[in-house]
Design brief:
This protein is mainly beta. It folds into two domains: 75 residues, Immunoglobulin-like, CATH 2.60.40; 48 residues, no CATH class. The strands form three sheets. It has a four-stranded mixed sheet with strand order 1-7-6-3, with no helix packed on it. A four-stranded antiparallel sheet has the order 10-9-8-11, with no helix packed on it. A three-stranded antiparallel sheet has the order 2-5-4, with no helix packed on it. The longest helix is centred in the first third of the chain and has 12 residues.
């Protein structure tokens, strides 16, 4: 004969042991996004703090702040080390993408504080917007949005 609480107890244990659902989010640079976590958060890990940072308001509420362009992840753990939240965070400037043409070669750049070349893979290189051989102040071949 089983006690009547055994089924509820088993469900509670199974629910507590379930891993957190992965979440992908886009956060604009210099903006914050609220995240509510189940359970009591004890530790927060940010993959690359140059891209995003986290402010913990209380044990159940945190804000992810976009710091610089790129992608990283955020993981929130409880005191026992169980994952309460895991998410991929992409930080991008809004309306500041630029295409730079040098001859027939096109380079896509993201300009927030400085212009950073968007490339496949993890490497990023700074790109000057003045055309090669162009007079000072000229930006030939530059098109995009968000630029004066």
């Amino acid at each position: 004969m089983r006690p009547p609480f055994s089924r509820a107890f088993c469900l509670a244990v199974a629910f507590a042991a379930m891993p957190a659902v992965a979440l992908a989010m886009l956060v604009p640079i210099n903006h914050a996004q609220r995240i509510d976590v189940r359970g009591v958060a004890a530790s927060v890990v940010v993959g690359n703090p140059k891209i995003a940072s986290v402010t913990v308001v209380d044990a159940h509420t945190l804000y992810i702040m976009g710091r610089g362009p790129g992608s990283t992840n955020v993981v929130v753990l409880d005191k026992a080390g169980r994952t309460l939240f895991t998410g991929d965070v992409t930080v991008a400037a809004t309306g500041a993408n630029v295409s730079l043409y040098r001859g027939d070669k096109r380079t896509q750049v993201n300009c927030s504080y400085s212009c950073v070349e968007e490339s496949e893979g993890d490497t990023q290189a700074s790109v000057g917007l003045r055309g090669v051989g162009a007079p000072a102040g000229a930006t030939p071949g530059v098109s995009g949005s968000g630029m004066p």
